[in-house]
Amino acid sequence: MRTLLSKGAFAIFLFLLALPAAQCKAKHQLNHDVVDAFKAIGAVVYSIALFDIDQDGDLDCVTALRTEFDKSVPSATYVWILPGLSGKEKKNVTIHVRAGTSPDKPVLTVGDDGPEQTAKFFYTDYKTCAVFEAPFQGLEECMVWVAKDVIADPPQDCVDEYEDNCDVKHIACDENTCSPFIA
């Protein structure tokens, strides 16, 4: 009887251990058109990272300001403004973006001499939000960026697309914490 109870308790423990991971996995159930990353980049000059995939605080309250944009090349430059929360260093990071192998996969360079890396745009409404995965500080970050005017109430399709494409949803920006850092 004791062995049966031990096995049952162990099985319940394993189930409970696996449950959070099962709830956080990307669904990959929505239909996806190929995103035109530069059309999305051209639509929003200033944006805020609303969700990211980890809880390390590196993208908490981070904002992005597009400082250059050339539709004909296409290319763009952003300054990511990291406010230095959760014990992280306060800094600005320059991100250069150019066309990649397909419209949804632009090439990024951090700073002027960083290695070229590829991002993957999953979704955008071409007005207020974009869901994409990009390398940042050695990790693949899956993020949703939104325009300032929808931060309190992001479009549901953006949230749905984020949940469909990204494994975990960590809130990187909430109004109470981030309002002092949002221009």
Automatic annotation (TrEMBL):
It comes from the Eukaryota. The keyword Transmembrane does not apply. Pfam families: His_binding. GO terms for biological process: symbiont-mediated perturbation of host defenses. Residues 1-26 form the signal peptide. One of its GO terms (molecular function) is amine binding. Keywords: Signal. This is Lipocalin-5 1. SUPFAM superfamilies: Lipocalins. The keyword Repeat does not apply.
